[in-house]
Amino acid sequence: MGRVAAWARQAPARPRPAARIAAEPGGREPPQPPAGAPGHPCLPLREGQEVTLSGEPWEVLWLPGHADGHLGLWNEAQGTLIAGDAILPRISPNIGLYAYTRPDPLGDYLQTLGKLEALNPARAVVGHHGPVMTGVQARARELRAHHHERLDFLQAQAAQAPGTAYALSLAMFPRDLNISGRRFALAETLAHLEHLRLLGALYRTWQEDAGAWVYHA
Hints:
This protein is an alpha+beta fold. It has helices at about 1-10, 20-25, 105-120, 135-160, 165-170, 180-200; strands at about 50-55, 55-60, 70-75, 80-85, 125, 130-135, 205, 210-215. The chain has six helices and eight strands. The strands form two sheets. It has a six-stranded mixed sheet, with no helix packed on it. A two-stranded antiparallel ribbon has the order 7-8. α3 (about 105-120) packs antiparallel against α4, α4 packs across α6 and α5 (about 165-170) packs across α6 (about 180-200). The longest helix has 25 residues, at about 135-160. This is MBL fold metallo-hydrolase.
């Protein structure tokens, strides 16, 4: 990837055909923005801020879990939530622990589900299987129950057969998965294990021979 980027920086720009330039109004190339200049200014948003879209006020909500910086937009008058991937009607958003994420993404997500349940929007604009879903409150309860089932499973599994996060991911996701799918499965298993550890329901011990943490009761 680095060699490709280096080549791209060094390679000369492909000249545009004269016939194409002549066909444009005035026969000249349109002006180009300065290199590296953003098309529009980017402003960070924080929970509780209000933004105006199409003349309507929207409150910024922080909905972490699927991603640390996941935001939603809430219009109380319309009962509409722009939810992104915070909640989905047919699948569970992946809640994974990675090297660069907050330490307890599942704990974050359970709080997000509580927020969505209390908000009880009439409709939500979602990232997949949408674009609009209803029944957000009921779906939030379903997803909470789903994650508690996985927590119960992993707690019992680690008590019966202590193992690494990878070994326990094979127990929780036993079907054949491609490399990308197994990566998501491992990250999700790790998020659940670390949530249990932070609650004091599981422990972990470093095993030098395995070069990994082993989770146990």
